[in-house]
Amino acid sequence: MKKEIAIVAMSGGMDSALTTAIALNSGYDVAGLHLNYGQRTQAREEKAFNDICDYYNIKKRLVVDIGYLVKIGGSSLTDTKLKIEEANLGRQEIPSTYVPFRNANILAIATSWAEVLGAKAIYIGAMQLDSSGYPDCREVFFQAFQKAIEYGTKPETEIKVITPIINFTKKDIVLKSVEFKAPLHLTWSCYSSSDVACGVCDSCVLRLRGFEQAGIPDPIIYKQRRID
Q1: Which of the ends of the chain has fewer CB neighbours closer than 10 A, N or C?
Q2: What are the angstrom distances between the C-alpha of 200 and each of 45, 56, 86, 209, 218?
Q3: Within-domain flag for 53
């Protein structure tokens, strides 16, 4: 019997690697979607995406260039004139690394591809708990986008947005990744560096803290290892 297809949005980070493992474990034929949006570590993230796809023998892959997010600006990930701050996990305000409405762009492209492939699900590894507090990573946002898909696609189209790690902590991510044998050694999380991870940006510190809390060594190399 032919498997149903699921689009998995894959940044190349540990969250999307685990999300890929979960989708595969749920019995889907996974199609990997990766977006290049002019982020500082674009080439390194695309390499991680392809490495993860190779690891899982994922044949259906789509890499989409949405460099217009650089022209729109507003994020230190896409505008080199803005500084990527060191991690401050106790902050209340949204950090400069927030890319305005990025997940809506990702989901819109995933929905278009899903309609063409006849996919039944879109998996995305967003987290709303142990994260930087981006507004488009909240569960309520994905619930709203689910409605947009229902209203904006063909009547016969049935696509479910699935956020399997939305309420995970980074510790949970590490432990579940070990359980599912997700390739953490192939993933890339750093916002600012493409050779050796900086260890001080939000993404690095959250990742390092997750490994520390899980009692498992992080397999990648860092310039510094800051754990808040």
Answers
A1: N
A2: 18, 30, 5, 11, 15
A3: yes
